[in-house]
Design goal:
heterodimer; A: six-stranded mixed β-sheet; 39% helix; B: Rossmann fold; six-stranded mixed β-sheet; four-stranded antiparallel β-sheet; globular
């Protein structure tokens, strides 16, 4: 059986406010999958529900990996991370006064990855040379694009099987967006990283994603492979703008 | 063209160095169904706060039905006929649904603290059967309806609905839209802010898109949805 993460009929929200109303999707090992949607449609809630920061009210999040099946729905975030899922949160959430290396180290000191801390740090500096140059610099003094790369590298310090990346392009200049997204693509292509990435910059996202899901109003509206996503760009825009674009 | 119900002229609002609303000009006609979209932080709610008087813009004037209201406090604007609902309903817990409506009625100039009037308001949003129940027993949809009823207590001629549909299911959205359509048919001008695109596209006859404090598109929902500037704001390149 292929390694994958399967989300089925997932529902979640905040108090009486329901946000996800039956989301089903899957991410297979080695894939880069884009989750497309405008503000307020549930992208972050979905990623947070997978990682355990938001508790699902129904449905399942199943990790099928190496012949083992683990139900993640209902587990606290620290347990989900130990199962091999990592989140790069929206807005990066770095420790701005700590150095690059300290931020990375904090990412890598969970139970699962701690014993390989040194190796993981070396990997981060190899995969992200700019972080090696700036290893002793406070994270908050770097550019937005560099901080986003650091946030991704910090997630990789947990030795994840799957990385969830929440809107890596937010607040970045266009040239930095290109740089961050091409780094994500390269990690997937050359280092076998499995990624579920929420994005609003649909042109750039579908250019690198093998498959794309369109999320509107808490449900998966449609799914495209890369070829069809690119040729259906207009249809995706229209779906995201309520059918009028 | 007849005089607009609302006329916003050169309004700017800064928070420190951030320009939240930048020289906005906007005329809203009597009876319009106007939608405002835009990404988080684009200035939609700040503009609404300027119109309702919750915050004072540094520059510009706002006229309602031909009267300059720029210096009026919020309650006087409400009495003149501007009402809004809030993104997060905050009813008075420990009080019944009906009592929740009698509170705003108390503060009206007309002083029409009549139970019959409160019941009419509840009926207009479909909450009449819940009149005697405590506010905290309401479902999320019912809370939204109560929020609308409270905004309607002042018999506004302009209603600003700020994300009244967030967190609702499809059939619930249909219900709220129906209430808003009915109000509009009775002559209430409605400005809607909403992230649920299909809902705001369905409701609005005219749509604005804001970005970094400016109105970057103004037209029919189709025109705005197809505007390259709007697509750039929402989708990147």
């Amino acid at each position: 059986m292929a390694n994958r993460l399967v989300v089925e009929n997932l529902a979640a929200g905040y108090g009486a406010v329901s946000v996800l109303r039956g989301v089903s999707l899957e991410i297979r090992e080695g894939e880069l999958v884009a989750l497309l949607g405008t503000n307020g449609n549930g992208k972050s809630t979905l990623l947070n529900a997978i990682i355990g920061l938001v508790r699902p009210t129904a449905g399942s999040v199943r990790l099928e990996w190496d012949g083992e099946t683990i139900e993640l729905a209902g587990l606290p975030a620290e347990k989900v991370v130990e199962c091999g899922i990592a989140l790069v949160p929206e807005g990066r959430r770095l420790f701005p006064h700590l150095t690059v290396e300290e931020n990375l180290t904090l990412g890598g000191c969970g139970r699962r990855a701690r014993r390989n801390l040194r190796r993981n740090l070396e990997f981060a500096f190899t995969a992200f040379p700019v972080l090696l140059e700036r290893r002793h610099q406070p994270a908050g003094t770097m550019s937005g694009g560099q901080q986003q790369l650091l946030a991704i590298a910090r997630a990789l310090m947990t030795e994840p099987r799957i990385v969830l990346i929440d809107e890596p392009s937010v607040g970045l200049a266009p040239v930095a967006v290109d740089r961050v997204l091409s780094t994500v693509r390269e990690l997937q292509k050359n280092r076998g990283l499995t990624v579920l990435m929420a994005e609003q910059s649909i042109v750039q996202a579908i250019a690198i994603a093998g498959r794309s899901y369109v999320l509107t109003h808490g449900r998966i509206d449609r799914e495209f492979d890369q070829e069809h996503a690119v040729s259906s760009s207009q249809e995706i825009r229209s779906a995201l703008l309520g059918g009028v674009a | 063209m007849s005089e607009p119900i609302l006329s916003v002229r050169g309004v700017s609002k800064r928070f420190d160095t951030l320009v939240a609303v930048a020289d906005v000009n906007l005329d809203v006609a009597h009876g319009e169904k106007l939608g405002i979209i835009g990404p988080n932080g684009s200035g939609k709610t700040t503009l609404i706060n300027c119109i309702t008087g919750v915050i004072r813009p540094e520059e510009g004037t706002i006229a309602f039905e031909g009267v300059d209201i720029s210096r009026m406090p919020t309650y006087r604007r409400a009495r003149r006929g501007i009402a809004r609902s809030f993104q997060i309903p905050r009813p008075f817990v420990g009080m019944s649904v009906l009592d929740n409506l009698l509170v705003p009625l108390d503060y009206l100039e007309s002083g029409r603290r009549e139970i019959a009037h409160a019941c009419d308001l509840l009926k207009s949003v479909g909450l009449e059967p819940r009149a005697e129940d405590p506010a905290e027993s309401l479902t999320h949809l019912e809370l939204r309806k109560l929020e609308l009823a409270r905004a309607l207590a002042a018999e506004p001629r302009l209603l600003i609905a700020d994300e009244v549909m967030a967190g609702l299911s499809e059939p619930e959205i249909d219900e709220v839209l129906e209430i808003l359509f009915a109000l509009n048919a009775r002559g209430v001008t409605v400005i809607m802010i909403e992230h649920i695109m299909h809902a705001i596209m369905r409701f609005s006859k005219r749509l604005l898109c804001m970005e970094t404090g400016r109105i970057i598109a103004d037209g029919t929902p189709q025109e705005v949805g197809r505007s390259p500037e709007v697509q750039k704001v929402y989708f990147g390149k």
